[in-house]
Amino acid sequence: MKKYICIPCGYIYDPALGDPDSNIEPGTAFEDIPDDWQCPICFVGKEDFRPEE
Q: How far, in Å, CA of 52 to CA of 21, rounded?
């Protein structure tokens, strides 16, 4: 699964790790995260993430 990077702060969402603090289970693809999820560092929305190259 592809990792996604937060453009404003550089946080990397890794599907293998999920986001336990937001109840996103490990193994959750970025596309399957709820649309109202926010970056745990700078709190921007999913629209500010891009696939990591």
A: 22
